[in-house]
Specification:
The chain is an alpha+beta fold. It has a single domain (26-193), classed as Glutaredoxin (3-Layer(aba) Sandwich). The protein is 33% helix and 23% strand. The chain is built from six helices and eleven strands. The strands form three sheets. Strands 2-1-5-4-3-7-8 form a seven-stranded mixed sheet. A hairpin with a 2-residue loop joins strand 9 and strand 10. The radius of gyration is 18 Å and the shape is globular.
C-alpha cells in the first residue's frame, strides 16, 4: 500500500471505531447508563441518569424537527396516561441547543416530562438512537422492551396518514404492563437524523 493511502487509513480507522455503536440492543448496563451525564436545562448543570423502579422511556427529540413537534401532544398524553408506571425522559441530542432553546421548546409545547440535553451524544450512541423522534422503552433493569417509532402516523419524511393505524409504543407499554411480551419489539423510526455534533 502506498504511504499516502496508508496514512489516510490510519486517520480514518480511529474515527470509524470511536463512532461505532455497540451491537448489544437487548440488555443495557445500569452502570453504563448511570455513568452518563445529561445537562438539565432547567437547573443549568449536568446530572447522572437516575436508576428507576418503573419502566423507563427515553424519547429522543429535536426542538426544530417538525415531526418531533408534531408528537409532543401524543407524548404528553402517554406521560399522563401512564403516570406512576413509566418514567419518561425527553432527550435532546447534540451541542446545537442552548438551555434557553430547550426551555422555550418545553414551554411552547407544554411538555409534561423532563427534558435533558445529551451534549456528548453518549446516550444516543449507547442506545443506538438515530433520529428524532425515536423512543426506547426499557424495563427497570434495563432490558429492551421496544425501540423505534411512536406509531405509524408518519411513513416517510413529509408523508403522513390522517391518523395512525398502529400505536407501537402504546401497545408495547400495555402489553408489558399486562405481563405479556410485546408483539412488535422494533420498528424503523421516521424523523430528523441525529448528527454527530
Amino acid at each position: 500500500m502506498p504511504l499516502q493511502k496508508y496514512m489516510w487509513a490510519l486517520l480514518i480507522l480511529p474515527w470509524h471505531f470511536s463512532s461505532a455503536q455497540p451491537k448489544n440492543d437487548s440488555v443495557f448496563s445500569a452502570a453504563t447508563l448511570t455513568s452518563i451525564r445529561l445537562f438539565d436545562a432547567a437547573a443549568g448543570h449536568d446530572i447522572p441518569i437516575r436508576p428507576t423502579t418503573r419502566l423507563r422511556l427515553f424519547v429522543f427529540l429535536s426542538p426544530e424537527c417538525p415531526i418531533s413537534q408534531n408528537y409532543t401532544r401524543t407524548l404528553n398524553r402517554l406521560n399522563q396516561q401512564y403516570a406512576g408506571n413509566i418514567e419518561v425522559d425527553g432527550i435532546i441530542p447534540g451541542k446545537t441547543w442552548k438551555a434557553a432553546d430547550i426551555n422555550a421548546f418545553a414551554a411552547k409545547y407544554h411538555i409534561s416530562y423532563p427534558l435533558w440535553m445529551d451534549r456528548s451524544l453518549s446516550l444516543a450512541h449507547y442506545l443506538q438512537a438515530s433520529v428524532t423522534p425515536e423512543v426506547i422503552l426499557l424495563t427497570a433493569d434495563n432490558n429492551l422492551i421496544y425501540k423505534g417509532a411512536i406509531d405509524n402516523w408518519f411513513h416517510s419524511l413529509g408523508k403522513s396518514r390522517s391518523a395512525p393505524t398502529q400505536n407501537y409504543l402504546q401497545d408495547a407499554i400495555d402489553q408489558t404492563l399486562s405481563h405479556a411480551h410485546p408483539v412488535i419489539k422494533r420498528t424503523t423510526p421516521v424523523g430528523c437524523l441525529i448528527n454527530d455534533f
